């Protein structure tokens, strides 16, 4: 009787799992007018293509293991998890914990293959990390547990400061300035480079219902200049928004209409800070026609 119930449960779970997968693929295929469209496979293949990911930023394969994992979960929790995985595989512990450890190792391995790596990509590992860490934590001495919790609380506080006040901190002030400034009332185009996309709904006003929002993502500097000044043909009613420390081809400080100042940090492009220095900071706004005039002068030299 028990065996038949187990088989029935397995078949029911299998049926609804397959039904959900096929139904999701059917919706995705109809939406994109492409068959078959398998979202997880599409995502994986997209992230293996360097030409796609060069727009978002390319990273080393060790970044998830040594940077993103500790950044997202905390160094103490991350180390505790892998210490637990090591002990479980070595001593063949409970099957449930071995399964969780296998999910972490295999998931981390697959995600590390991709050239573009962000901390949020590791969020699916949250549950198995908690399972392994909670079990391992119980095996520690009381003193070790106290040290763990102190380090974990410290990471939480620092993470709140970092992601709450430093990371991409210039985006909201810049959006507020663009929308509230009288000199941008008749603006028609906003070109964004190397920063988070701006929600169009936060920028629209009655006079800017036809606002054209263009995101150049992570184009290299020369490609960005050519795109803005030679291809887009943006009128005088256009502005360019970008992190000041990301640009180094020629001086733009005298062209800046607005600068968010503060400590605007972008973890996807941390290399810009080391290459160009931490002095020039914040997101700046320049008028495209003045910016391109300077570029064309520079290009002719």
TrEMBL record:
One cellular-component annotation, GO: endoplasmic reticulum membrane
UniProt KW keywords: Endoplasmic reticulum, Glycosyltransferase, GPI-anchor biosynthesis, Membrane, Transferase, Transmembrane, Transmembrane helix
InterPro entries: GPI_mannosylTrfase
Membrane topology: Multi-pass membrane protein
PROSITE patterns xref list: PROKAR_LIPOPROTEIN (PS51257)
One GO term (biological process): GPI anchor biosynthetic process
Spans through the membrane: 62-83, 95-115, 121-140, 147-166
Any Pfam family hit: Glyco_transf_22
Pathway noted in the entry: Glycolipid biosynthesis; glycosylphosphatidylinositol-anchor biosynthesis
Compartments reported by the entry: Endoplasmic reticulum membrane
Keyword Thylakoid belongs to the record: no
Family: Belongs to the glycosyltransferase 22 family. PIGZ subfamily.
Descriptive protein name: Mannosyltransferase
Organism: Melampsora larici-populina (strain 98AG31 / pathotype 3-4-7) (Poplar leaf rust fungus)
Highest classification ranks of the organism: Eukaryota, Fungi, Dikarya, Basidiomycota, Pucciniomycotina
